[in-house]
Design brief:
226 residues, mainly alpha, Arc Repressor Mutant, subunit A, 10 helices, 4% strand
């Protein structure tokens, strides 16, 4: 009897978990592209009508996105999309510059040949993603490009030997997505210059040239947010 209870409730848990992940993916996409506008109130019943799910699964989705910084919970007022003002952008930029510089410094100290190989592979995938999004700049390709940007960033910083630091960096990287995709939609990303920086960064990593690598990282972060 106990075995069946565990099986049933365990199955329901996995099912609910999958629904929350699907809902979170849909809301992230629409927040990133401005379909759900900055500061917009997020009412659970309206979201359910639009995206599906139960009250419970939608509430869990909003809590997940709150942890990620995409959504804010307001006392007695429910949830709203996080703001995206110039002040927000500058604050995210400050956090990214500070944390990613520290992570790269540590990665250069701790990284081995496998780390170098992972950076090379991620850079190659990002080269392909850059070409793809320039050829077909639709929403699906844009999100795939952004995920590849994220993967490259984490490959570069991955040897920092601090999971908590990487987790914090990931949240701020995700919070900068709206600004990055806005630049993409407006045609304000210099892909040729991005490619040049990426090649130079790979070379600096191989040479363990910390000063050059940090300068290139800073230029890259600024270019995708301003």
């Amino acid at each position: 009897m106990d075995w069946w209870i565990v099986l049933i409730f365990g199955g329901r848990y996995r099912e609910d978990d999958t629904v929350v992940e699907m809902l979170a993916s849909a809301l992230r996409r629409d927040i990133s592209f401005g379909v759900l506008a900055p500061d917009q109130k997020l009412k659970i019943e309206q979201l359910r009508q639009r995206y599906g799910g139960s009250n419970h699964s939608m509430r869990e989705t909003l809590r997940m996105l709150t942890v990620e910084g995409m959504v804010e919970a307001t006392a007695q007022r429910g949830f709203r999309v996080t703001s995206a003002t110039d002040q927000d952008r500058n604050d995210i930029l400050l956090m990214r510059l500070s944390l990613e510089a520290l992570a790269l410094s540590r990665a250069l100290q701790h990284g081995d040949v496998d780390w170098e190989a992972s950076v090379m592979a991620a850079a190659h995938r990002l080269d392909r993603a850059d070409h793809a999004v320039q050829s077909s700049p639709d929403d699906v390709t844009a999100l795939e490009w952004d995920e590849t940007c994220r993967a490259f960033s984490f490959a570069v910083l991955g040897a920092c030997d601090s999971p908590r630091m990487l987790d914090t960096i990931g949240r701020h990287f995700d919070q900068s997505r709206r600004f990055r995709l806005a630049l993409l939609r407006e045609g304000r990303i210099d892909f040729a210059e991005r490619s040049r920086r990426r090649v130079a960064l790979k070379n600096a990593i191989i040479a363990r040239d910390e000063a050059t690598a940090l300068a290139l990282l800073e230029d890259d972060i600024r270019a995708e947010m301003t």
